[in-house]
């Protein structure tokens, strides 16, 4: 498996966009028969890539909210926009 290319991917779908937006980050190769140090390094790199991907998605959603806010004028508040885009529940796998 060490030669395989692995990619972490997230897809954001909005009722206001014609097509879903996909974000991705390349992952380091999974070491074959890894030592404890290699496992720890791989998991640290994976966690870093997840954080980077989350930052990309958050930046995109924030941009979309700002665009909607500008087009709606002063009539829309931030809580209504957040309800439209959904809450971020990173630890919720339901």
UniProtKB/TrEMBL annotation:
Localization terms from the record: Chromosome, Telomere; Nucleus
Pfam families: Gon7 (PF08738)
Keyword field: Activator, Chromosome, Nucleus, Telomere, Transcription, Transcription regulation, tRNA processing
Polar residues bias: start-end ranges: 1-16
InterPro entries: EKC/KEOPS_Gon7 (IPR014849)
Region annotated Disordered, chain positions: 1-38, 66-94
Quaternary assembly: Component of the EKC/KEOPS complex composed of at least BUD32, CGI121, GON7, KAE1 and PCC1; the whole complex dimerizes.
Annotated family: Belongs to the GON7 family.
Role of this protein: Component of the EKC/KEOPS complex that is required for the formation of a threonylcarbamoyl group on adenosine at position 37 (t(6)A37) in tRNAs that read codons beginning with adenine. The complex is probably involved in the transfer of the threonylcarbamoyl moiety of threonylcarbamoyl-AMP (TC-AMP) to the N6 group of A37. GON7 likely plays a supporting role to the catalytic subunit KAE1 in the complex. The EKC/KEOPS complex also promotes both telomere uncapping and telomere elongation. The complex is required for efficient recruitment of transcriptional coactivators.
Protein name, entry field: EKC/KEOPS complex subunit GON7
Species whose genome carries this gene: Phyllosticta citrichinensis
């Amino acid at each position: 498996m060490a030669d395989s290319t692995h990619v972490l991917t997230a897809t954001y779908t909005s009722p206001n966009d014609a097509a879903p937006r996909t974000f991705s980050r390349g992952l380091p190769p999974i070491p074959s028969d890894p030592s404890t140090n290699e496992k720890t390094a791989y998991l640290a790199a994976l966690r870093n890539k997840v954080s980077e991907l989350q930052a990309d998605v958050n930046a995109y959603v924030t941009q979309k909210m700002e665009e909607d806010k500008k087009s709606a004028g002063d009539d829309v508040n931030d809580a209504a926009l957040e309800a439209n885009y959904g809450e971020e529940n990173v630890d919720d796998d339901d």
